[in-house]
Amino acid sequence: MGRGFLDVLHARDISAGGLGIRVPHGFAGCDLYSEVELIITLGRGRPFKTMGSIRHHGRPGAEHIFGVEFLGLSPEQQQAVEDYVTACSRQRPKVREFRGPPRHGDAARRSSTTSD
Questions:
Q1: Is the four-CA dihedral 28, 73, 9, 93 of positive or negative sign?
Q2: Position 50 in a domain
Q3: From CA 89, how far away is CA 83, in angstroms rounded?
Q4: Residue spans of the chain under pLDDT 70
Q5: What is the pLDDT of residue 92?
């Protein structure tokens, strides 16, 4: 990613518009505001090249997290990204709503209303 060097990075998240990457060295010494060349591999699919632009840099803890916007995806590449995102979202386990710990007496009330 970038000019003059190659880094193999794994996305921590991806959407139709871009991806989030973790970069341990934080691109030290690089121009963060230039466009970068990306080679994207989605699952077991064939890799493709596209351009990106760093739009966000955050540093939670000791990690450098970058948000990269896709630039100039072909219609086929855009469709591949959208299909991949959709497939990944279907595979994620559904999160159940957490209603907090049971309050004192809840179990007794439930058992009295369900035993009729």
A1: positive
A2: yes
A3: 10
A4: 1-6, 24-32, 59-62, 92-116
A5: 64
Q: CA–CA separation, 1 vs 97, rounded Å?
A: 39
pLDDT of residue 48: 94
Q: Which of 76, 93, 69 is nearest to 15 (CA)?
A: 69
Which residue type occupies 79? Answer: Q
The domain that holds 57 is classified in CATH as 2.40.10.220
**Token pair of 112 as six digits:** 């009295």
Q: From 94, 65, 87, 110, select the one nearest 16 (Cα to Cα).
A: 87
- Count of positions (residues) in the chain: 116
How would you classify residue 17: left for phi > 0, otherwise alpha for psi between -120 and 50, otherwise beta?
Answer: alpha
Q: What is the pLDDT of residue 29?
A: 65
Full-model pTM: 0.66
Number of domains in the chain: 1
Asked if the structure places residue 72 within a domain, the reply is yes
Task: Decide: 38 and 105 in contact? Cβ < 8 Å.
Answer: no
